[in-house]
Structures are given as structure tokens and as C-alpha cells.
Amino acid sequence: MRYKKVLLATDGSETSFEAAKKAKILLEQGAAEEITILTVVPSLDNHCDPTTINMLKEQAASLGHEVIQSTKEIFGESDRVNAVVEFGPPAEAICQYAAKNNYDLIVIGSRGLNTFSGLLLGSVSHRVIHYAHCPVLLVKPYREVSYFDSPEMVSGIV
Ligand SMILES: Nc1ncnc2c1ncn2[C@@H]1O[C@H](COP(=O)(O)OP(=O)(O)OP(=O)(O)O)[C@@H](O)[C@H]1O
Ligand SMILES: [Mg+2]
User: Fold this and answer.
1) CB 20, CB 32: distance < 8 Å
2) Residue pair 50/98 in contact by the 8 Å Cβ criterion
3) Which domains, from first to last, does the chain contain?
4) DSSP-based three-state secondary structure for 130
5) Ranges of residues in the chain whose predicted pLDDT is under 50
6) In angstroms, what CA-CA distances link 122 with 25, 65, 85, 111, 129?
7) Under 8 Å CB-to-CB from 113, ≥6 apart: which residues?
8) 144, 106 contact by CB (below 8 A)
């Protein structure tokens, strides 16, 4: 199976870097033809004055570009990898961008920057799995020990 257009959604988290590594393997093995790195800068609430809003927007956009830059480094030099920054609610922006531009696969981390909750899925990955028009490759955080290496952990999930 060969995916022509692959969309990699990243928020700069450890798990999204794991997702980037999986996308890189797809590219190297010829399972993906081209990859777009997408980071979405969440919408700002409009309660501040316009000058503050503009300043916050600029800061957020430059943060988005930093996320793109660090993700690009995982791929090294490749003319088959490009990047975009979008603005809006992340899950909706990811799904809309993928559908509008006819992507064949979305690669996403199971969790992101918010490491506080014990949930298996973050809200962005949860919504993308629901609303994406195409298959989604959900990449889990790196673990040295598998659940199935430890009887206590297995009994915790069954
Ligand atoms: N702003 C974003 N732009 C692009 N991709 C994103 C963005 N936020 C999250 N993602 C993608 O979704 C994956 C899961 O992140 P998500 O935000 O769902 O989890 P979380 O931060 O742990 O929890 P939550 O944000 O719901 O509190 C990330 O690894 C990344 O691939
Ligand atoms: Mg998040």
C-alpha cells in the first residue's frame, strides 16, 4: 500500500515527535510519497484589545514555526517534506485541511502537550479519529517496557 499524500499533525510534544519518526519510516520505505507537517495555532479568545491580540497572534505564529522547525529536523533534508501553519481549533483545522487537500493518511500522536490527565487519548486525537475523511495512524508514546511485559499492568487493563 502506498499513500500519496500524508499529513503529519504536530504540537511539538514528545509523542508527536514519535509520530514524525513513524512518518519518516513510511517515507523511507516508499509507503508514503510526500509528507506535509501541519501545526495548528489555536484561536485566541477576542476579549483582549486589538493590539494585545495582534501581539499574541505573532507570538503564537512564531511558536508554530518553531514546532515546524524542530519536526523538520527529524526528517533531515528532503524535497518530499513540506510544512504549513494553520489557525483555528486544532482537530477541526486538521480534518478540514486533510479533506480539502485530498490527503490519504493522517499521522497523529495519541497524546500531546498536556501530560496531566491519565487518559489514553487527548481531545485532538480523539476528535481527529472521529471526523477525519481518511485513515488515521495513531502513534503512541515511546515506552521501554510494554504493557504485556508486566502482569500487574495487564491486569490493570483487562
Ligand atoms: N495544535 C495542534 N496542531 C497540530 N497537531 C496537534 C495539535 N494539538 C495536538 N495535535 C496532535 O494531536 C496529538 C494528540 O494531542 P492532544 O492535544 O489530543 O493530547 P493532549 O495535549 O495530551 O490532551 P488535551 O490537549 O486534550 O488536553 C499530538 O501528538 C499531535 O499529533
Ligand atoms: Mg493538546
Assistant:
1) no
2) no
3) 3-157 (3.40.50.620)
4) helix
5) none
6) 24, 22, 20, 5, 11
7) 11, 12, 13
8) no
Classify residue 147 by its DSSP letter: G
Best residue among 41, 94, 103, 125 to mutate for probing ligand 1, ranked by most atoms within 8 Å of CB: 125
**How many Å apart are CA 26 and CA 99, to the nearest integer?**
21
Instruction: Give the bridge partners for 85, in sequence order.
Output: 39
Cell reading at 73: 529536523
pTM for this prediction: 0.91
Q: Which three cell numbers stand for residue 81?
A: 517534506
Give the pLDDT confidence of 118-145 residue by residue, as tens digits: 788 999 999 999 999 999 999 999 877 7
Residues with Cβ within 8 Å of residue 53, at least 6 apart in sequence: 44, 46
Name the residue with cell 479533506.
99
pLDDT of residue 12: 94
Residues 6 or more apart whose Cβ sits within 8 Å of residue 140 = 15, 18, 109, 110
Ligand 1: residue of 10, 11, 22, 87 to mutate (most ligand atoms within 8 A of CB) is 11
